[in-house]
Amino acid sequence: MLIDVTMPQLGESVTEGTISRWLVKEGDVVTKEQPLVEIGTDKADSELPSPSAGRVARIHVREGEVVAVRGLLCQIEEGATESAAPRAPAALASASAAPSAVNDVAQAAAPSRSAAGGALASPMTRKAALENEVNIDDVRGTGERGRVTRDDVLRAKPAADPGRVAPNAPPPAPAQAAQPAPATRANTGALAQMIQQGGGFVPPIPGLGYGAFKVPAYRPGEGDKVVPFTRRRRITADHMTYSKFSSPHVVTVAEVDLHRTSQLRDAHKDRYKKEGHPLTMLAFVVVATARALRENSQLNARVLDDAYVVFGDVNIGVAVDSPDGLVVPVIRRADELGVRGIVRSIDEVAKRARNGKITIDDLSGATFSVTNPGIKGNLFGGAIINQPNVGILRMGEIQKRVVVVEGANGEDLMAIHPVMYMALSYDHRIVDGVAANSFLWRVTDLLEKGEFEV
Questions:
Q1: How many CB atoms lie within 10 A of CB 366?
Q2: Which has more confidence, 33 or 196?
Q3: Strand order in 29-30's β-sheet?
Q4: pTM of the prediction?
C-alpha cells in the first residue's frame, strides 16, 4: 500500500515550503518517525518525519523546489522491508517536473499568475531570475499551480542571451524611444510587480543598480573574506529589501524618563531572579506597548491589496538573537498578560531561540514588533518594519541624564534619572502621524508613571 507524504501546514501563516534537502533516496527502507526531508519556510527550518515504516517508493519533488501546503512530496510503500534500486535520474526529473498529467495540461494551457499579475514564484526564484537576466513573466512554470521554479529559470537562461535567437522566434521589436532601464534588465518589470508598485515605477535592483547607475564589480583584495549568504541571511535580506520598497517608512522618536519604572524593577528584580526569570526593562516596554496598541488599534494592523485589517488580538513579536541570526518570536495576546506573564513568555522564547529550538508557530502571527539593541546599544535608531506589520518600536540605550522635575512645592528641580529614547517606525500607507504620535505618547506615559503590577 502506497502512503502519500504531503507538505504539512508548518504554522498558521505558512502556505508553502522549500525542499532544502532530502535525507533519503528512492528505494531506502525507513522507520516510522524517521526524518525524510528538511523543509525551509520564511519562518524556520523543519524536518518531516515518515508517517509509517516502509520503503521510499517515489520522490516527487527535487531539492530547491517550492511546494504548497498539501502538495505531494513522496510516497512510502508501507510495510516493505527490502531496499530497491533507485529509479533513473531521468525518471525522477520527469516526476518532479510533472506531478500529474492533469497538472501539465493545465499549466501548458495557461500559466498561473499572482494577485499582482506576475508569475507565481518564490523570492529565491525571483533572485535567480534577476541574476540570470531572465524575465520571469515569460517563463512557463512546472511547479505546483504553475509556479515558476529555480530550474525553470535556469532552463530559460539561454533564451535571455542577447546573442542567441530562439528557434521560430519572431523578429525583435523596434527599440522604444525611452526605456526605464537597460534591455539587459528586462526583469525589472517583474520585480516591480512583485513589490506591487504602480504607475510604471521601476525600482532599483539590489546588487545591480538603477537607471544609469551601475554597482561597480567587486575586485578581490588581499585580506578580503567572502562570506556566502546563509539561507536565513538571504531570507532576512529579501525581507528587509521588500519592507523598504513596499512600506513608506516614517520614524518618530520619544524621550522616556524611566525613573519610576526603574525603581519598581529594582525593588522586585531579585525576587524574579530567584524564580528563574530576569525582570528586564524590555518586559515593561512590551506591557506598555500592548496596552497602547489596544487603545490605538491603527498600529495593530496590516495592509491588504485594496484594504487593511485591524486585528482583534494583540500579538507582539520580540526580536531576540539566535545561532542563525535575529528571529522574532511572538507573545500572543500580550495585552491580556501582566508583567509576570510577559517576563515568563519572553524568557521562554529567548531560551528556545538560543538553543536552536524555536518553532515555526513561535515565529508566526505577530501584529506588531518590539526590538531591543541590547546592552551595547546606542541612542536611538529607526528599525525596518517587520512585514506584514505596520509598525515596529525600537528601544534605545538607557543612560543617566540630568532632567528637570517638579518639586513638592511646584518648583523646577534638576535630578539625575535613567532616560531612554524610543523610535517608532510606521507604515504611512495606513498610519497617519496623529495615530502614531498618540500611540507613542501613550507608551511613554505608561513607562513614566511606572504603574505596573509586578
A1: 24
A2: 33
A3: 2-6, 72-78, 54-59, 29-30
A4: 0.63
